[in-house]
Amino acid sequence: MAPLGNLIRLHALPITHLPAHPEFEAVQSAKLPHASSTEDGSASRPGDSSYAPTGESAASSANPSQRPSLSSFLKEALDQATFFADDVSTTFKTTSEKGSNPATAKVTLLKRQITSQELSDIPWGTQTIPRLAPRHIANGEAWFARRSIHANKREDGTADFEEFERLRLNPSEAEVQYTPDVVDAFKVLDWEAEIGRQGIEGYSDVKMWIYEMYHHLPWPVYNRAFSVLVITAKTSRSSFIVVRIPLDLSTLPQAFYSSGRHIQEGDTAQKRKPFVHGIYTSIERVKTNSDQSIEWMMTVSSDANGSLPMSMQKLALPGEIAKDVGFFLKWIGETRDS
User: Fold this and answer.
1) Which residues of the chain have pLDDT under 50?
2) Whole-number Å distance between alpha carbons of 222 and 216
3) According to the model, what pLDDT value does residue 56 have?
């Protein structure tokens, strides 16, 4: 079992810990006006612990020269994600198996509780990309996973590998298309120009974006916004990985929801609504097996914050991630000939 990494954790990473980007040059350490609300109606600033439960200050590494290089950051994040995904079969416990219409494959559900002691033992400040240890780790991290094996075919209820690659090419934009409760994927920025043709050892066709994912929830619960760094890469000709790392965008004016700009600039009433900032981190991996079937694995840890008790979230999340398999394959089938 590989040791736990410090990047793919349920603690928001400040943008000052990210590789350089032209849009970061004008960012000041001062906080922006509040952008979200708590579900009791009180104001909630993006930097509050309810949004980004981390001990890292947004100004803790304000000197651009202290930022990690792009290549080292990408390599470390992808390696940590790969090691964690490799260990799912041995460190997670299988809990159930579900159908996910219209998928023909069954979905196996798994879970793992990472304890506060395991989080404390992470060498937060001495890994390749150092960061401060978070303040709030008493409850550990609850992780859930799903695994499904699909026929590598272009037919109803399944998809071939090329169709599965739509999860890699731009996973955030795809999620808006196939997930009913995701109403917006706002791209804050990307590193396409900066990555260019530089190689990352062990990976190819690497991409990295910052997105704000905006979810509609039924009344009386507030909508949720999630700020994530999204990294995708091919791990071979027939496999790829998608990594999402939670971010604190409270100091980034280019953000839409975290900055509060959505209140005036949202193009629908739904996007102008008050919301609660949630937080999640996830890893997806798709690979072709030796028998040419396709294995799709996803693991996630999240906290919707607000008034939703964590006990309720833990009960609901496995079923929700199982539904995504059917949602995706339904979308693939509907768009296959378009």
Assistant:
1) 29-55, 57-62
2) 8
3) 53
The whole-angstrom separation of Cα 210 and Cα 194 is: 14
Is pTM beyond 0.70? Reply is yes
> Measured between alpha carbons, how far is 162 from 125 in angstroms, rounded to an integer?
40
Q: What is the Cα–Cα distance from 255 to 310, expressed in whole angstroms?
A: 27
Whether the Cβ atoms of residue 126 and residue 170 lie closer than 8 Å to each other: no
Tell the burial category of 165 from Cβ atoms under 10 Å away from its Cβ (0-12, 13-18, 19+): middle
The pLDDT, as a whole number, for residue 65 is 61
Q: For 150, what's the count of Cα atoms within 13 Å in the CB-facing half-sphere?
A: 32
Reported as half-sphere exposure (CB side, CA atoms, 13 A), residue 157 has a value of 11
- Residue 49 confidence (pLDDT): 32
Best CA proximity match to 195, nearest among 285, 85, 58, 77: 77
- Report pLDDT for 138: 82
Residue 15 is given by DSSP the state: G
